[in-house]
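Hi all, long-time lurker, first post. I run a small reading group and we've been trying to get comfortable going from sequence to structure in the token notation. Rather than ask abstract questions, I figured I'd post a concrete chain and ask someone more experienced to write out its structure so we can walk through it together at our next meeting. Sequence below, copied exactly:
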Amino acid sequence: MIGAACAQLGERALVCSGWSDFSDLPHFDHVKVVGTMNYAAAFPACRALVHHGGMGTTSAGLRAGVPMLISWTAPDQAIWAARVKGLKVGSGRRFSATTRESLVADLRRILTPQYVARAREIATQMTKPAESVANAADLLENFARLRHVD
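-- Answer (accepted) --
Happy to help. Here is the structure in token form:
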């Protein structure tokens, strides 16, 4: 489905397989499958992202300033898909409801200049990962200090 959709759109795909084994699938010159990738390095070089909608992947996509399509399977991923749609930086669809036709239509929509511009705008508002970690540690420490009972 990915190979056919990309061929129809004239695009290439980089697929991070993670724990999935895609070795028995057909090979396409315009689709590359890798086991792991550095999202912070790869995402900004992409025209669009299609991913599962985990919190970390969604955040990395927002930081990269790239429109995204969340193809979700779990309720928390659907929440992130709705948030991405509400921000007008992408869209979401249940993975089981995705077809080649819907994938092409969704990608065409999020590759429009409006979605690209909005994704870039939101990226400027995102906290950097190191700042996020420091902020989370500060909040946790403040919470612990306030809840400390002698």
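A couple of things your group might point at:
Helices lie at 2-9, 39-42, 55-64, 75-86, 100-110, 113-123, 129-147.
Strands lie at 13-16, 31-34, 49-51, 68-72, 90-94.
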